[in-house]
């Protein structure tokens, strides 16, 4: 059956863009440039722990709890270094500010294979296009600097929406922005629960990107029919044109 799609919504991190190197490596390199020695692996571990704790305590960048996403991130960066053994102080505050800026830089991100081409081709087919991403308000700048922003009619972040995937209200807001009913929309993302299931729960179609990682077979949840699976982004057009 031909899918009558008008709107495609897109996750960003690990769907269109991914970090060029792990957080621990980026943080350690910036610290080294300032004469601070920290092991990347240790920093990576510390970051995962601090990020998890901060996300539980202040969900969605502390929105609704009186924090700005910038304050939220600066705290995460500083606490990660402290946990990895760097004494807190003015040098660390400055380092945190620098890293917050670094993550807006195109040098921090790379496009996933097929991303630019697939977005261009979807645009040319006349789809309305939007971003639905659990991200802070830096996303507009990141997309612009990575030369992707022009593909999208709107960019909806969890910070702006006030709710994060898998909360269906962020998808409902995207549908409202596009003026499209859910059955004429499809979401593309890499996370089974936050992207695939959450979009389907509001009545949208959904495609799950399952690219093989470093020497790993992609993990495909058995509940997802093969025609909803994207081994690469380049597979999308054949599926939406069915």
Task: Considering the chains and any ligands shown, give keywords for the structure.
single chain; 242 residues; alpha/beta; Rossmann fold; DNA polymerase, domain 1; 2 domains; six-stranded parallel sheet; two-stranded antiparallel sheet; 10 helices; 8 strands; elongated; HAD-like_hydrolase_domain; HAD-SF_hydro_IA_REG-2-like; HAD_sf; Haloacid dehalogenase-like hydrolase domain-containing protein 3
Q: What is the fold's blueprint, element by element?
A:
Layout: E1 7-10, E2 17-19, H1 23-32, H2 40-57, H3 69-83, H4 90-102, E3 109-111, H5 115-124, E4 128-133, H6 139-145, E5 154-157, H7 158-161, H8 168-178, E6 185-189, H9 192-201, E7 205-209, E8 229-230, H10 236-240
> Could you tell me how far the N terminus lies from the C terminus, measured between alpha carbons in angstroms?
6 Å
Strand order within the widest sheet?
5-4-1-6-7-8
Helical run tally: 10
Query: Tell me, what is the CATH class of the largest domain?
Result: Alpha Beta
Shape: elongated
Biggest sheet statistics: 6 strands, parallel
SSE order, one letter for each helix or strand: EEHHHHEHEHEHHEHEEH
Proper CATH architecture of the largest domain: 3-Layer(aba) Sandwich
Q: Output the radius of gyration.
A: 19 Å
Oligomeric state of this protein: single chain
What is the CATH superfamily of the largest domain?
Answer: HAD superfamily/HAD-like
Overall mean pLDDT stands at: 94
Number of strands: 8
Report the β-strand fraction as a percent range: 5-15%
Low-confidence stretches: none
Helix-strand category: alpha/beta
Question: Could you please say which CATH topology of the largest domain applies here?
Answer: Rossmann fold
Total domain units = 2
Q: What level of helicity do the residues show?
A: 40-55%
GO cellular component, one term: nucleus
Family: Belongs to the HAD-like hydrolase superfamily.
Protein name: Haloacid dehalogenase-like hydrolase domain-containing protein 3
